[in-house]
Amino acid sequence: MTVVTTLPDHRLLLVHAHPDDESIGTGSTMAHYAATGAHVTLVTCTLGEEGEIHVPELAQLAAAEADQLGGFRIGELAAACAALGVADHRFLGGAGRYRDSGMMGLATNEHPRAFWQADLDTAAGHLVEIMREVRPQVLITYDPNGFYGHPDHIQAHRVAMRAVELAAVEGIAPAKVYWTAMPRSVLEAGLSHFTDSSDNPFDGIESIEDLPFGTPDPEIAARIDATEHHAAKEAAMRAHGTQIPATSWLYSIAGNFGAEFMGVEYFTLAVGEKGPGSGPYGWEDDLFAGIGIGLDDDGSGRAPVSAAGVR
């Protein structure tokens, strides 16, 4: 028997490259929307097999040894999603379909399963399958530079944007696509604050122009204030213990700036119409702003799905 259920009116899809990217970059946003009853779907493109291990007793899991880090990180990601209140998580094409490519220019970029080598339309097709099921109105991924230039982040951007194109042909594309961003004003404040710090994440950086990321404030479209969920984001980050050590500068910043650092995230709008906002640049405070919700089943309203996950 096929049992038809109905997903919530608000549906958010996030496309990230590796386990832990979701928590660092969008954890508070995910926790915020999950708490409001939205359906939050996280798609992670690789298992993060090439990550640097910060737990000495787990060093043998490294790619150069047992090559079991990816499997271990599946558990870390599950714990992080639980902390964020996100129940719907998938790996693109299934767990292990695509491998962590490592940093740009390394031999790992050439691995036959490296995500960097993935056929674009095939990978995008896996994402379109999820779009058919979930019918998200909003999608979040990285900008064309993958925020900071990692090949898997760049590929995640390419795959997500190609999937949006393919979904548009079927009439099921998200109404809005956002890219993660960091306002230059926020970076400038951090650069100034940590100049004399012994745990300076900007060490060696004299100007924000030297950073591989940073968006002029007028180009920011949305500022999601989820400070009430900053603890959930920190818990999710701590779940990724192999990648984010307890001594990480991320926690140092959190200690200095508290909920403001952990709970506020920013985005640029790549596809769709900007909704109502506020402040000098009209920043949205809701990613669903301006979208007609609950109208019908054409991709802008409710999405009936079967118990098997297929409309």
TrEMBL record:
Binds 1 zinc ion per subunit. Its cofactor is Zn(2+). Its EC number is 3.5.1.103. It holds the Pfam family PIG-L. Keywords: Hydrolase, Metal-binding, Zinc. InterPro entries: GlcNAc_PI_deacetylase-related, LmbE-like_dom_sf, Mycothiol_biosynthesis_MshB. Zn(2+) binds at H18, D21, H153. Gene3D superfamilies: LmbE-like. GO terms for molecular function: N-acetylglucosaminylinositol deacetylase activity. Signal peptide: none annotated. It catalyses: 1D-myo-inositol 2-acetamido-2-deoxy-alpha-D-glucopyranoside + H2O = 1D-myo-inositol 2-amino-2-deoxy-alpha-D-glucopyranoside + acetate. HAMAP family: MshB. Belongs to the MshB deacetylase family. Catalyzes the deacetylation of 1D-myo-inositol 2-acetamido-2-deoxy-alpha-D-glucopyranoside (GlcNAc-Ins) in the mycothiol biosynthesis pathway. PANTHER family: 1D-MYO-INOSITOL 2-ACETAMIDO-2-DEOXY-ALPHA-D-GLUCOPYRANOSIDE DEACETYLASE, N-ACETYLGLUCOSAMINYL-PHOSPHATIDYLINOSITOL DE-N-ACETYLASE-RELATED. This is 1D-myo-inositol 2-acetamido-2-deoxy-alpha-D-glucopyranoside deacetylase. The lineage of its organism: Bacteria, Bacillati, Actinomycetota, Actinomycetes, Micromonosporales. The gene is mshB.
